[in-house]
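so my prof wants the structure for this chain in the tokens format not the other one, which i didnt know existed until like an hour ago. anyway here's the sequence
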Amino acid sequence: MSTAVPQKKKVSWSNILLGAGLNMFEVTTLGQPLEVTKTTMAANRGDTFAAAIRRIWSRGGILGFYQGLIPWAWIEASTKGAVLLFVATEAEYYAKVAGAGPFVAGISGGVIGGLAQAYATMGFCTCMKTVEITRAKQSASGVKPPSTFQVFADIYRKDGIRGINRGVNAVAVRQCTNWGSRYGLSRLSESLIRSARGKDKDAALSIPEKLLASALGGGLSAWNQPIEVIRVEMQSKTEDPNRPKNMGVVGAAKYIYSQNGLKGLYRGVTPRICLGVWQTVCMIGLGDMARSAVERITGEKPAAKH
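here's what i got, hopefully its the right format
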């Protein structure tokens, strides 16, 4: 009995550009406000949700929720989305060729795609976004604050490449667990929905079913919030004389636990869940549907592996 070989989609520029476009849409709509909110709560762990909202509003009104969007979040979004869709799609296909089921193949694609994101594109962008969200704004006392590019140059002059990539290992752990969970749990949710609706295992899902599966995958992936809080602490410019200098992942975890206990490692989890849902709906739910639409428009067909 022959085993069916999974079909492989052709690598195309349309797929890479689609990933960049979807991530730009995600971050410019709900993504950055949710990012700012959860980062503010993770950096100021004594704040309630309402206090964090007031803190953000005091830094520029509605524009406070978009700090770090231009240029850092846009640079990050326009590159990491393309990397994710390209690498994760390839890795998921080869995992299926090796005999993995949808759940394991989805996790494999997400983990490898997330690692590629972190080290290829996200290090300095994520660091600078966090710096912008957490640094003091002297303008309140009549002193014009340095521009974001001046801050970037100051960090580079002081600490070099390591400085502008501070926390990149924590970003890598976050990204591989993020997208491993999101892809894996989204594919598992798709399988469960097909089973519940009596559909064949390869049957296409409706748009509401696809979005529901993506939302479940995104929301449940917030289990790794402690590594996100650790990442924020490592990159934060919040002033605290008691904080050790040049902390690594383990040192940051110990410091957060000593200051705020176990609950400190889960600060900002609510906006993180919302962000995870929105990102996953955009990059997996809308991404799968958009890829299918592009294939219909361009006439591209999945190419069988020979």
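also thought this was worth mentioning. The radius of gyration is 20 Å.
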